[in-house]
């Protein structure tokens, strides 16, 4: 969720395809950058001072072509705000790379996504560094989610928040 240009999607999908029982690959992104509401919240409520213009040059077509160029033809790609996606339509989730950067989408989506996670499944939340940045909203929402769920915070490689559903 939050796929950018697709490089990481290619790596994850190739690793998945090498498994004995590969799972379907789903991608969810606006393909137009951050939403106006999420940007306004970061600026007005969290005191950030940024226009968040990154990722606006992406498109679903470009992303799809990137996957196809690497032999990935059966990805299910959804162009929408991650906050508005109906996660109940997904099959049980074993692994998710969650990279939406900002507070509101992270706060909104983590409970929905975690409820779809299989026991033993993992969600990796990007941008969970404790250092302040324009993208520290994801880390704040991750820490709040861990606290609310009684989960131990686990941040690896200085910025990746790990959520593991107990077996």
Q: How would you characterize this protein structure?
A:
The chain has helices at 7-17, 36-44, 60-69, 103-116, 137-149; strands at 26-29, 76-79, 93-98, 117-125, 155-156, 160-164. The two termini are 24 Å apart. Helix 4 (103-116) packs across helix 5 (137-149). The strands form two sheets. The chain has a four-stranded mixed β-sheet with strand order 3-4-6-5, covered by helices on one side. It is globular, with a radius of gyration of 16 Å. The chain is built from five helices and six strands, in the order H-E-H-H-E-E-H-E-H-E-E. With 167 residues, the chain is α/β, with parallel strands linked by helices. Strand 3, helix 4 and strand 4 form a beta-alpha-beta unit. The mean pLDDT is 93. 34% of the residues lie in helices and 18% in strands.
